[in-house]
Amino acid sequence: MVQENIHNLPNALSLIRILSIPMLILLCMWDWHWAGLLAAIVFALASLTDFLDGYLARRMGRVTMLGKFLDPVADKLLVSAALIMLIPMGRAPAWMVFVIIGREIAVTGLRAAAVATQEKVVIDSSIWGKVKTVVQMAAILGLLIQDTYLGVDTGLIGYLALRAALLLTIISGYMYFKDYWAVIVKPKESASQQP
């Protein structure tokens, strides 16, 4: 079973995403004009595996428990690494990075609590969360490149997208907590009040 999980293509893509993180960090630390662009390419390719692994897992019927664990962990590690590296590069305020990463940790904990307290209860991703992910990735790419191409200032676009991602982070985080309350907490309170 373990061997089957390892040789599962979607799981392999999640592992590739995790293994790309040290390269991304090294490129962000490299004091060279094109290092940011190379870091953005690594981040973009790694992010592409995020869309591919879920699609392939469903299409090939290879959804596994390891994959369900590995996919979100790989996503959060990749995004967190990129955001944290933007701080010493002077391209993202530390407080904004803290709020975004803090929300990711809180929502992950919320999902784990939902599964632990109510069997088979899953809090699905909302449209807000999905839009937040896309905007967040665009922000990271723009801030990593931080240059002007064909008259387009990617740094400015990245900074504006990061502000939008922050707003979407707060909205989607609120929606997750609201769903958790409606699905888990409220029914328990109602049950405990019944004679």
Account of the protein in words:
Helix 5 packs across helix 7 (127-145) and helix 7 (127-145) runs antiparallel to helix 8. The chain has helices spanning 2-6, 9-19, 21-29, 35-60, 65-86, 94-117, 127-145, 154-193, and strands spanning 148-149, 152-153. It is built from eight helices and two strands. The chain is mainly alpha-helical and 195 residues long.
Strand order of the largest sheet: 1-2
Terminal CA distance? 47 Å
Q: Compute the average pLDDT.
A: 83
User: Beta-strand level of the residues, as a percent range?
Assistant: under 5%
Number of DSSP helical runs: 8
Helicity level: over 70%
Rounded Rg: 19 Å
Query: From N to C, what is the helix and strand string?
Result: HHHHHHHEEH
Strand-pairing-aware structural class: mainly alpha
